[in-house]
Amino acid sequence: MRQRKKNSNVFIDFFWGRYFVLSYSTILFGISVFGLLHSVWFFIPGAVFGLLTFIGWKDFSQKKHGVLANYPVLGRFRYLLESVRPELRQYFWEDDTDELPYSRNQRAMVYQRAKGEMAARPFGSVNKMYEEDFSWLNHSMRPCHIEDKNFRIKVGNGEKTYDMSVLNISGTSFGALSPPAIQALNVGAKLAGCAHNTGEGSISPFHIAGGGDLIWQIGTGYYGCRTLDGKFDPVKFSEKATQPQVKMIEIKLSQGAKPGHGGMLLAPKVTPIIAETRGVEAYKDCMSPCGHSEFETPKQLLKFVEKLKHLSGDKPVGIKMCIGHPWEFIAIVKAMTETKKFVDFITVDGAEGGTGAAPVEFSDHIGSPLADGVVFVDNALLGADLRDKVKIGASGKVVSAYDIVRLCSLGADWINMARPFMFALGCIQARDCASGECPTGITTMNPRRYRVIDIHNRATRVSRFHGNTVEAVGEMLESTGIDHPVNLTRRHIVRRLSSSQIRLEDQIYPKVEKGSLLRGEEVEDPRLSVYWSRVSGESFNPKNDSDTEKALESAYQQIN
């Protein structure tokens, strides 16, 4: 009886169930082959059913994909639908404000500003203003008029300084982005009058071809200025750093998307032009270590900064980092007060920042978010009386003029964006950056895919997005009665904590008094008050003090 039932189930599976496409394709293929003996018209159905039969039996016999083995041919439709799921959600089902990391409304705003179209919204805001964490800018009853909205910030403490735009293009490495995408961004930077960060992949011929201002980022691999064994090469660095197009140098300590994580560019992707740009061997794995080999302490870091300043002809040199262990950054600040040697700027990268590919856990749960990082850095520099010497850039998930205004109010001097400028190039947020199959040709090294990028057209869009966004920043400032972003304070931003409770940002993030740490005064941030006396420029680690954790715990208890 059981055997009969089992045989019945098998029969159903093959002719009415999960194997029916395989079964009928096989039968119809056999009929078509027989039919060919009588008529050539059976060739077409024979080819179709033959292909389905081949695919079906291949699926049935393999064990790599369980779905395909149990549902021959049919299972492939699952993978097909899964592959286009982001596009289906994006176009048909998601609300204008739902999609992450950037909503349809945010992307539409970038596209409109890049095209020179009016980025206005009819019928009121779609934001839920009474939900927790909503924030807004307080306006004035006495708005002002700003004649020149080309906001600049002077960076550098030496003979050579750089007038930085309030909005710039964040690190975009050659190889992660295609040759025409890199060149279009750089031409756009030249047209807009802003800076273009090279990313850690070094200065490529396509950066140079654009003619725009460059911030050369030096990562742990020292690409473009390295020996064959991966050490820093001062001669190669000086040759590139002294080029007029290079305006500043940025030492990358970590990035928000994957802080503390190195990387590897696999051998097949290390093409001759990428190898030449980076200074590595072609078609061999290219490793980016987790940390730098040129320094191990904060004071050694500052010596390396001084070395790069000398080799570059006294150009501004700074660091880029995502805030992690607070005592490590405090140690850097302490080293500056002890040695009287300073970095010219600090680019704070938020954990919400993006990259071509990063481990999920790193993207989601490692590193400080941008706003918190900017406040911490600003407060530490204020407490050490270094804020006038060290400028602060901010990069992360930033897209609108309001984002710029808010971050400037929290302590940033300028803002860097990468993904919005990629939207300006034509990115559709397919989130297929690591596969080499970018549908718009932006994040691929496949010539057949990036041939679609018109450099002049896309550069114009990049420039328009920059100009229209900075113009919007100016209009927002006019409404507050303020004439420059550097004059914004945390009191200008209001944040909702609940449906019935709001606070000014300076109540949420109290500002540290200038020089208070040097005077030994208590500050409201326990990290600063506890670790300041327990670190030095000699080490990134705090002193081996058994009371440190107890002091930190006590400080938090007092706040609570």
What does this structure look like?
By secondary structure, this protein is an alpha/beta fold. The chain has 2 domains: 2-83, no CATH class; 152-498, TIM Barrel, CATH 3.20.20. 42% of the residues lie in helices and 12% in strands. It contains 22 helices and 15 strands. It has an 8-stranded parallel beta sheet. A 3-stranded antiparallel beta sheet has the order 1-14-15. Strands 2-3 form a two-stranded antiparallel sheet. Strand 6, helix 10 (234-241) and strand 7 form a beta-alpha-beta unit. The radius of gyration is 28 Å and the shape is globular. The mean pLDDT is 86.
How many individual β-strands?
15
- Going by helix content, strand content and strand pairing, the class is alpha/beta
Poorly predicted regions: none
The overall pLDDT, averaged over residues, is 86
* Proportion in helices: 40-55%
Determine the CATH topology of the largest domain.
TIM Barrel
Residue share in β-strands:
5-15%
- Determine the number of helices (DSSP H or I, runs of at least 4 residues): 22
Largest sheet: 8 strands, parallel
How would you describe the oligomerization state of the chains in this entry? Answer: single chain
Write the layout of secondary structure elements.
Elements: H1 2-15, H2 20-36, H3 43-61, H4 66-70, H5 74-83, H6 85-93, H7 104-115, E1 135-137, E2 152-155, E3 162-165, E4 167-169, H8 179-192, E5 195-197, H9 205-210, E6 213-218, H10 234-241, E7 246-252, E8 263-265, H11 272-278, E9 286-288, H12 298-311, E10 317-321, H13 326-339, E11 345-349, H14 360-365, H15 370-383, E12 391-395, H16 401-410, E13 414-417, H17 419-425, H18 447-450, H19 455-480, E14 493-498, E15 501-504, H20 505-508, H21 526-531, H22 548-559
Parallel strand pairs: 4-13, 5-6, 6-7, 7-10, 10-11, 11-12, 12-13
Antiparallel strand pairs: 1-14, 2-3, 8-9, 14-15
